[in-house]
Amino acid sequence: MTYTPRKLLTFEEFITQYGDNTRYELIDGELRDMEPTGPHEAVAGSLAGRIYVEIFRANFNWLVPKNCLIKPLYAEATALRPDVVVLDKAELNQEPLWQKEPVICNGNTIKLVAEVVSSNWQDDYARKVEEYAFLNIAEYWIVDFRGLGGMQFIGNPKQPTFTICQLVNGVYQQEKYRLGDPIFSYLFPDLQLQLDDIMPS
């Protein structure tokens, strides 16, 4: 039996073939199917709506794009597609690709990323923690509404968990919240949010 490795994609090939398909992202040249389900999309949509309301209420000069890829400048074949991303409008004129594609390259344009965990939870809890910290993104939210992550990430017994990663000296400090816990964000200190509020029905 011979092993045939999967063909790796370049960033340009990914954009051409999958740029408009929100089901996929690219990590080190490997196509990743994010396997979105209805409940997954409902949680992401509810979270994005609550964040947008808070941006509007606080009069921040930020936006929540419908679709957005993150291409770290140092990574040749990576295009991350967070479930929710908050961008600083004032920084968009520094983005080399934004006028032609919804692609962000500079970490200082990104105020927040949020990932809703699905079956590929290892990416959300490990790889993306490193990627987003390296980009100096102030906050990274991991919304594990089904309790899928490994026990080292969400505890034992496994249960729905909302993790806020706050960047401190280049490393994320992580705070876990369970159902019923009021969630605290340094970026949105007045945000009234519990995991219960965004659970799918």
How many H/I helices? 5
The major sheet is characterized as: 6 strands, mixed
Q: Tell me which CATH architecture applies here.
A: Alpha-Beta Complex
- Share of β-strand residues: 15-25%
Query: What level of helicity do the residues show?
Result: 25-40%
Shape: globular
Number of domains: 1
Name the strands of the widest sheet in spatial order. Answer: 3-5-7-8-9-10
> What is the succession of H and E elements?
HEEHEEEEEHEHEEH
- Please tell me how large the radius of gyration is: 17 Å
Q: What is the mean predicted local confidence, pLDDT?
A: 92
CATH topology: tt1808, chain A
CATH class: Alpha Beta
Distance between the termini: 47 Å
Q: Helix/strand-derived class? A: alpha+beta
Uncertain segments are none
**Could you give the count of β-strands?**
10
GO molecular function: endonuclease activity
InterPro entries: Nuclease_put_TT1808 (IPR012296), Restrct_endonuc-II-like (IPR011335), Uma2 (IPR008538)
Keywords: Endonuclease, Hydrolase, Nuclease
Protein name: Uma2 family endonuclease
